Amino acid sequence: MHVPETIICVDCGGVCHLLSYPRPDEPWESGDIIAYRCSDCLDRWDIVMTDDDPDDDRPWQPETGPA
Ligand SMILES: [Zn+2]
Fold it and tell me: Using CA atoms, how far apart are residues 44 and 13, in angstroms rounded to an integer?
């Protein structure tokens, strides 16, 4: 799944860089926690990965019918 290399710090608006990297044989999965460090205020942010990607441009699809 897609993991951004940087995110915007919600405290200072600076750039937070990815601290965690997936192992080659163990890619990110939903529920994994990845850590970022802000280069401006040095705050650490732990983000729980989810399947919901707000940056995904695909339109939302309702779940219909049995799986
Ligand atoms: Zn910051």
Answer: 13
Residue 55 belongs to a domain: no
- CA–centroid distance, residue 31 to ligand 1 (Å): 24
Asked whether residue 38 is assigned to any structural domain, the reply reads yes
Residue 6 C-alpha to ligand 1 middle, in angstroms? 12
Containing H/E element for 39? none
In a domain, 59, yes or no: no
Instruction: Using the mean position of ligand 1's atoms as its centre, give its distance from the Cα of residue 58 in Å.
Output: 30
pLDDT band at 55 (very low <50, low <70, confident <90, very high): low
Count of domains observed in the chain: 1
**Residue 18 structure tokens:** 């990815």
Assign 43 a pLDDT band (cuts: 50, 70, 90).
very high
The Å distance, Cα 46 to ligand 1 centre, comes to: 13
Assess if residue 1 is contained within a domain: no
